[in-house]
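To whoever picks this up:

The nightly regression suite flagged Ferrochelatase as changed. Nothing in the input moved, so I suspect the structure step. Input below, exactly as stored in the fixture:
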Amino acid sequence: MRSATIQSCTSSSTSSSSAFPHPPCLTSASGRCKFNPALLPQGISFSQRMSRCSGVHLESCFNYNLSKNCIIPSYSCGWPETQSLFSKQPHKKCLFPLGALVTSKTQDVSSATLIGEERIGVLLLNLGGPETLEDVQPFLFNLFADPDIIRLPRLFRFLQKPLAQFISVLRTPKSKEGYASIGGGSPLRQITDAQAEELRKSLCAKNVPAKVYVGMRYWHPFTEEAIEQIKRDRITKLVVLPLYPQFSISTSGSSLRLLESIFRNDEYLVNMQHTVIPSWYQREGYIKAMANLIEKELQKFDSPEKVMIFFSAHGVPLAYVEEAGDPYKAEMEECVDLIMEELEKRKITNACTLAYQSRVGPVEWLKPYTDDTIIELGRKGVKSLLAVPISFVSEHIETLEEIDVEYKELALESGIENWGRVPALGCEPMFISDLADAVIESLPYVGAMAVSNLEARQSLVPLGSVEELLAAYDSQRRELPPPVIVWEWGWTKSAETWNGRAAMLAVLMLLLLEITTGEGFLHQWGILPSFR
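Regenerated output under the current build:
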């Protein structure tokens, strides 16, 4: 186990008699790229588009087996000696509508940080990626072995791992080519480790000593490994922070679902309070950091005002949005709107568009697709395009290979003459500082009682327990089609399902015909008795 670097962080502890404030509820003005509310997912009502500032203490326990060879980077700035506690006053509720910009109130919160006996931890969740070409096949196996990626009928779930092995072996050669083109592996772990270290430093500078852990979904360091290190460090209050700005069932939801299964079976979490920040795309620091990067890249064009700003987000299956109420599409559109509003404040009024990339498999994904949109923009005479990877905060294969290579070549072939790309946020200081603020602002709600009324459980909770998050975002998770391959018996639009229904109907008709006529193959083979 790689030892964590421990640095001292002197913090002045001052008590505060006032309750911790909630983020203010500010409604932003209509932006240039304001999206029609009619485009919101059918499964989300207006009340569901409201975010509630609430925290939840989930008293559950978890259990798992951990590989002895795991390597977990953890970053700490030391546990202080002085005593101080959370304010015990009850917190107020705060609703802010879709389109509201969340500003930081850390200057008020940090004056009463948790110290003394409390040990604060932050768990960063991310997808993970193969670090070498030899890692590609096992990484793909872990990906496709996830029931959220390939969902089999209950009767055939014993085939999950054999099927994952078959698909991973089949896809490995092409995937290796992609990773070879970006240096032989994904830089995601290195970047996430660096983000964790910078977040630790930022928290330390804000008088909140904490340890920051990295937990990946499909590759090292796995979430299970990070949780094991958290247990060894005797963390008492944990903030779970997925590194996905917008929530989706297939990204943050999958990671939180894994955490839920871990929590349920281990005794340690009985006494460890925690909270989850499922999405943070509305935060002012994040919006301004994105606007800064876009503004900087626009200046590299000869005619910045003529550049089309092209937001490209990772796609999700359409059924997630239309059937399960996944808020991803609505949050993505709102995020783009907020960024364009910020740019308009800077007198940048470029046209913009949003499309979705990285679709896989036979099911329908969110539209418009990035490749189709690039071709269409070329036909319409767009000559300058600035690609913005809106759903990514780290460089990885989707940005370095798919956008920088495949989409760039497609754009040039389609008549677009000038191509640019905004880099992922990485360790951009304003972004990291804002993440630190989000963590600090969530600390007063670690262990707070859950709001149990129906409206709260149907809303999008920015702070809450894993169970409440899954109930709010994924109430039909057992019926969700997977994002890659569909072998469902449920009511979906996939070709496999319709073919299966047709085959079952044909079998039933043949069976009915044999029973009524007393003739056919089953009678000839002696399977059905003859009544003549």
